[in-house]
Amino acid sequence: MTWLPIDQTTASERAAVLGLHPAAHAAQERFLARCRAAFDAGLIDLCTAHMAQSLRCREALAAYDDALLQTLGRWDQCVDFSPLQRDALAFVEQFILDPALIDAGVIGGLERELGSEGVINFAAVIAALEASLRLSTLLDLEPAR
Amino acid sequence: MKQPKLNIPPAPAGGDAALYLNSLTDQQLVADYMAFYVAAGEAAAVLEPELLELVRLRNGIAQSCEYCMSVRLEGGAGFGEDIGEKVLRFEQGDFSERQKAALRLADAFLTVPSGLTEKARQQALEQFSPAEIVALLLRLASFLVNKPRAALGIDGALDPQRLTRIDSAAAIREFTPRD
C-alpha cells in the first residue's frame, strides 16, 4: 500500500494517487499508451518486465508470471531470446543504471535490427516506461485488483 | 562536438542537441510527450520554481547529461555555477528542509526508488501535501526524457562556454510539433 495518506475511492491505487492531478495523469497515460503501441508488444512487455524486476516495482511485477521473471533474471545465459530481444534487454539493463554508459556495441546491435530512427524511438519509449515504473516503485503503489 | 553512438551525423555545430534529437524522433511520440510535459508542469506550478530547478539539475547529474547541466530554467536564476556540486551533496548544504525533502525523493527516484526510507517518507510528508508530492514526482518523470539523449550520445552542452538561460514557455513552443 502506498505511504501517501489518501482516500481511495477508485478501483486502483494508481488512479487514486496519480488522479490527484487528473490532467497530468491522463496525459501520462496517453503518452504511455502511444509508447506501448510504437513497437512489437512482446518486445515492450519483455523490456517492461525486466525493468520492473530491476527496480522492484510491485505494481508492474504482479502482471508477470514467475517463470518469465526467472528466465529474465538470467536472460544473458538463455538461448531462447532473439538477437533483437537480447540487444533490447542489454540496453534497458544499462539504461536503468546509467544511460551515458551504454556501450556503443549494444546500440549498434539494436541499430542493425531497428534502424537509426527505430533506436531513437525505442530509447524514448523505454525512458517513458521506466519513468512510470520509478514513480510507481517510489510511491509503492499496489497492483491493480 | 559530441559524436552520437548511432550511425547518424552529430548535432550541427552550435546547434541544440535536444532539438536535434527531437527532430529525429517520431513526431506523434514527441507530441504526446510534450502534452505530458506541459500537464506535469501545470500540476507542479504549486511548487516553488527554485525547488523544481534543483530537482531538474539532480536529474541532469544522475544521467550525466551535459545538455541539462548547461542550461538554467527560470527557477535557477539565483543559482551559482557550483549548484551541481551542492545538489549532489544536498544533505550537507544550506538548502531548506523542504528542498532537502524534495531532493531526497528525487535522489531515490533516480537511483533506487524501492530504497526510499521510512524516515525520508515522513520528512516528505512533513514538508509537502500528498498532492504536492505527486506533482513533484510527475514533474520528475517528465524530465526523464533526457535519458535517451545521454544514452545515444546526443547530449552535448547547448553552449560549452557558458550557462544558457532558457525561457520555458518559448522552449515548449519550440519543441512541440506543429500540426
Amount of helix of chain B: 55-70%
The average pLDDT value of chain B, as a whole number, equals 93
- Give me the Rg of chain B, rounded: 16 Å
| Gross morphology of chain A | globular
Order of strands, widest sheet of chain B: 1-2
Strand content range of chain B: under 5%
Mean pLDDT of chain A: 95
Helical coverage of chain A, percent range: 55-70%
Low-confidence runs of chain A (pLDDT<50, min 5 residues)? none
- Helix and strand string of chain B, N-terminal first? HHHHEHHHHHEH
Would you report the number of β strands of chain B? 2
Runs of chain B in which pLDDT lies below 50 for 5 or more consecutive residues are: none
Largest sheet of chain B: 2 strands, parallel
Listing every helix as H and every strand as E from the N terminus to the C terminus, the arrangement of chain A reads HHHHHHH
What is the first-to-last residue Cα distance of chain A? 12 Å
Give short descriptive properties of this protein.
heterodimer; A: 145 residues; mainly alpha; 0% strand; B: 179 residues; two-stranded parallel ribbon; 10 helices
Structure commentary:
The complex is a heterodimer of chains A (145) and B (179). Chain A has helices at 13-18, 22-37, 41-55, 58-61, 66-73, 83-97, 104-139. Chain A has 145 residues and is an all-alpha fold. The mean pLDDT of chain A is 95. In chain B, helix 2 runs antiparallel to helix 8 (130-143) and helix 3 (49-62) packs across helix 8 (130-143). Chain B is built from ten helices and two strands; from the N terminus they run ααααβαααααβα. Chain B has helices at residues 17-24, 27-43, 49-62, 66-70, 83-88, 97-110, 118-127, 130-143, 146-152, 168-175, and strands at 71-72, 164-165. The radius of gyration of chain B is 16 Å and the shape is globular. Classes of the chains: A mainly alpha (145), B mainly alpha (179).
